[in-house]
Amino acid sequence: MAKRVTGPEIEKLIQLLAKVPGLGPRSARRAALHLIKKKDQLMGPLAHAMGEAFDKVKVCSHCGNVDTVDPCTVCTDDRRDQSVIIVVEDVSDLWALERASAMNAAYHVLGGTLSPLDGIGPDDLNIKGLIDRVAKGGIREIIIAVNATVEGQTTAHYITDHLAGLDVKITRLAHGVPVGGELDYLDEGTLSAALRARTAI
User: Fold this and answer.
1) All structural domains of the chain
2) CA dihedral 112, 113, 116, 120 (to 10 degrees)
3) Where does the Toprim domain lie (predicted)?
């Protein structure tokens, strides 16, 4: 059995950091040690920022984005073309597309993809919210920007079928997104090209 070299508070910090995507146990220990060494300059402000985020962060009731206001900053931005909605799987995909600055449109976050094997059906995603937004009118184009995975393609087909007859143009990402690729890992140039080369379904 390994000997303990730190108190339970530091061990808990390491264990929690290890749960962050991209950080394993070794990386979490290095991150924790760095935070402890920079206690005043980094750990204190980080703890304060996390406390504020915990208290104020909420999910936008309109599009599913995360922000500190509801409706979110994207939904209330008058400079955006609210008649075009980019449909994404997750908030990380929304942020990736925003980094690319390829389009100034609205968004709709599904919260995942259809996956019968994992027990994720249409009612587990924000698909009804999208259909309701389109049914209200004023939407001229839906850009389906889901990942090029089997689940992503299944979700895209499901959405397309349920938007049929609602007088809206439906397009999807094209060139630049590899099969099996995930939006959050693509560079801005690839995302920009994919949005510009979208095709009708």
Assistant:
1) 8-56 (1.10.8.420), 79-172 (3.40.1360.10)
2) 30
3) 83-178
